[in-house]
Amino acid sequence: MRIDLHTHSTASDGTDTPAELVRNASAAGLDVVALTDHDTTRGYAEAIAALPSGLTLVTGAELSCRLDGVGLHMLAYLFDPEEPELARERELVRDDRVPRAKAMIGKLQELGVDVTWEQVARIAGDGSVGRPHIAEALVERGVVPTVSDAFTPEWLADGGRAYAEKHELDPFDAIRLVKAAGGVTVFAHPAAVKRGQVVPESAIAELAAAGLDGIEADHMDHAPETRTRLHGLAADLGLLVTGSSDYHGSRKTCVLGEFTTDPEIYGEITRRATGAFPVPGAGGSGDASPAA
In terms of pTM, does the model score above 0.85? Predict the structure, then answer.
């Protein structure tokens, strides 16, 4: 059983539509895939409508958080998307993405880079605009060779020359809100130092004490020795360990199923969740429009 619990679609910063994502997940030989777009659930309806037979969809989101000045991402699974307090926080984060993107574009223009809002908006399409869209604009302008190369202190990394802050959740609040909505929380790529500063392991212990369910140890941005260390940390703290691709379509080099989650861990996640349930595929057509 092959399970990938971290993917993105055009509802945020992926390049596959939700329908394309589930079809590609099935073609890649996955049995379970989670749709975890940034701070939004609007890809759910299209993904469910297109869900092929033999593939199960886990609904989720990747929540933008910040702790002591350090950005981090919290994967939230199988929560009630209509729970009002969590929905309100997601909306606040999404609403701040446009002014934040425009601020970053302004900084790039001050640095002599000819990136425009119109260009970034075209790249983002209907998705929730984010740094990867600005990074792709930098690739189009020939400033950097790849999207990943834009996430450096020289450009878009946390604290970088063109970085701008946005509204983000306190991760302790995120855990509380997701649990109140019946969901399960997993700290995404907690030691991805190539993305910038990361929180110390002492902070992960504090999050575990506050109800964090797991950490995403097996991830392309973690070196083998880092993955081993995180597995040990999870065992010490009583946390679940997941593995995921963090798939973004053609925007990143990772492929569906590059890292996967143990079926027993997946089973425990589904047992803990009360806000929503995995959706088994029934051979959908993909004709549904995305939810608002």
Answer: yes
